[in-house]
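Long-time lurker, finally posting.

We've been working with Lipoprotein (Pyxidicoccus parkwayensis) and I want a structural starting point before designing mutants. I don't trust myself to interpret raw outputs, so I'm hoping someone here can both generate the structure tokens and explain anything notable. Sequence follows.
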Amino acid sequence: MGASLAMAACGGEMTPEEAANLENEALAQSESELGSCNNWSEFTPTGSQFCDYRGCGSYLTCDPEYVKNPDAAAKGTGEENIYYCPDGSPPWRVYRPGTFAETSSYRVCFDQYGNYTHTEYQYSSTLVTCGC
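Top reply, 14 upvotes:
Generated this for you. Predicted structure of Lipoprotein:
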């Protein structure tokens, strides 16, 4: 609609094809401008930490107490090669939790004239230690 008004002011109404072409050109220019960002910064800690129950691998156990009690499950049995329990049932998988630290990185974006347009952020997390 804005393109139609601009063309009307310059001497005539635009055809739908002309309006679509003009919009596509504007979109391509906007995408080009948004793509002109500097490199990402180094990842830096945000100060946030969280516990992920699958953070440090897992082990198999036949003891139902390890499934019921998460503190016991975190300690492990050391018997990771159990494939079947003595009664023939499959063992339970118990996950070892890990503490993760969140990090962030950013890059600053400029238009084709070198003017600041926006800043983009990305987040990641890194395993700090096993256990929570």
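Before you design anything, note these points.
Residues 37-57+96-132 form one domain.
Residues 1-9, 70-78 have pLDDT under 50 and may be disordered.
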